[in-house]
Amino acid sequence: xxxxxxxxxxxxxVLLFGLCxxxxxxxxxxxxxxxxxxxxxxxxxxxxxxxxxxxVVTIYNYQQYRHIQAPGWSLGWTWxxxxxxxxxVGGQATEQGDCSRFKTTPPHCCKKxxxxxxxxxxxxxxxxxxxxxxxxxxxxxMQDPANAAASFxxxxxxxxxxxxxxxxxxxxxxxxxxxxxxxxxxxxxxxTKYFSPDKRRVSQVMMTWKLTCTYSQFLAxxxxxxxxxLSSFYNDTVVPCPICSCGCQNNIxxxxxxxxxxxxxxxxxxxxxxxxSPLVRCTRHMCPIRVHWHVKLNYRExxxxxxxxxxxxxxxxxxxxxxxxxxxxxxxxxxxxxFNSKSLTPYGTINDTAMxxxxxxxxxxxxxxxxxxxxxxxxxxxxNPATFTFEKGWAFPRRISFNGDTCxxxxxxxxxxxxxxxxxxYISLLTLIxxxxxxxxxxxxxx
Length: 447
Fold this sequence. Notes:
- InterPro entries: COB_C, COBRA_pln.
- It is a lipid-anchor; GPI-anchor.
- One of its GO terms (biological process) is cellulose microfibril organization.
- Belongs to the COBRA family.
- This protein has four helices and 26 strands.
- By secondary structure, the protein is mainly beta.
- The chain has two domains: 39-219, Sandwich (Immunoglobulin-like); 223-261 and 276-414, Immunoglobulin-like (Sandwich), CATH 2.60.40.290.
- The strands form six sheets. Strands 1, 2, 4, 7, 9, 10 and 13 form a seven-stranded antiparallel beta sheet that branches.
- A hairpin with a 2-residue loop joins strand 14 and strand 15.
């Protein structure tokens, strides 16, 4: 009996382990530096119409440092019944679909699975809605919360005219602008309430649905998008990005996979390239972005670092870029000279992570590859005598991400090391002057 119980227990353990393995996939989205980051979509029905309703859809980017850049977001779903979109303000469907069954004025969109995009800046006022018309660009919540939301209004027909008959859409998809986001199912929540301008009256919508979308770097791209190189004042070695960090040169089987900067046809290749498609310079690492961390100076109470971000893509600019760097000395960051900075505290009281981004109209736009395709700044840290050291790679970052994507770091055993005390002799300036003066005096006396 005891043997049988033991066998059953072992079988149950193996079965539970197998179920756990099938329950979690490698594409599950979780960012330890932004554990609560997501994009929340809220669908508010503000009024009923003879055959449906008018709704306001709002997209909130609650991600701390991941933003949606040009050409912007696109939102899709599948209608639960035979709904159509009669009209839209602040956004538009990419296709009208087959509206031949309507004999009079056709709807804005008749597709079962519509795709909605934002309008461009300069849209006429009668087509605008609050937080619209930014070309689909959404800033990250920490970088620019005022521009981290987008809204559009749509009039839906053939949808039901009460809370009992109306059905929310299914299978939401969000492109931002490429893949990477996975959206959950919409659910009915408490109706949204609004205050009047004088804050004396509260009104609420007819019905509200809400869903969240999370990001996974594994879904977004097969290879990383950036890498890190290192150097220091106390070592002549420059540690480059690991070879093939973001892929390898493969011009034999895939001609044109990278661009040689010495090519006489470079200008024609760049001008013929499609906008926002990768056109990466041929390098050992093949990354569009390289972040270089250089330990520059050592003072008595401070130490100084220079950070340089270089764009190796000939076809893409990075607007409103940002860096997230993890290093134990960020709790003593004293000054950042030409970037904006803000601390991230994903682990409660531990302050070892900072977000850096460009200054508006100065270096917030990282230009295409070329002489001006880089931005740089210097960071000044105050030393903590209890932890500060240049030994064993302590002065280099633990993790760096660019626009929310984790960069490939060199292996720790390749970090620039601190020379042994006896391996190099340093001569002070005063000693050198005294030696020169003595030599001159000796030469003059016996000349």
